[in-house]
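User: Structure please.
Assistant: Input sequence and predicted structure:
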Amino acid sequence: MAIGDPNLIAGIGNISIDGTQWALRANLTISPDMVTREGIAGEDRVHGYREMPKVPWIEAELSLQPNQAVTDLALGVVGDSTVVAMLADGRTFQLNQAWYRGESELAAQDGQWRARFEGMSCFEILASVA
């Protein structure tokens, strides 16, 4: 099966930062929502909801590669980067004006590290149907 197969719904994926593909190890997770809503209930009924801004993000476990420095992301992705994640079914998400968030934690025994990127906006790029 390949990307674009209508029966493929999970598995393969990739991530790139500013056009450079990184070695995706596992657990590519995307939170594209830019708002969060919470219901407000009174003692008599539901009164409505409130809406608050939310920071969209993309997170993944990456394999350590000899030609890619972890510090390049920590120091270089500081608010003007683009992170693109593509899922097995062809869904693609683009995180705009992104920055690298948090502490780098490398698992030496497994040769991997977890990276999280946050941004100003995240949109699903719809694939054209042939």
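Helices lie at 70-76.
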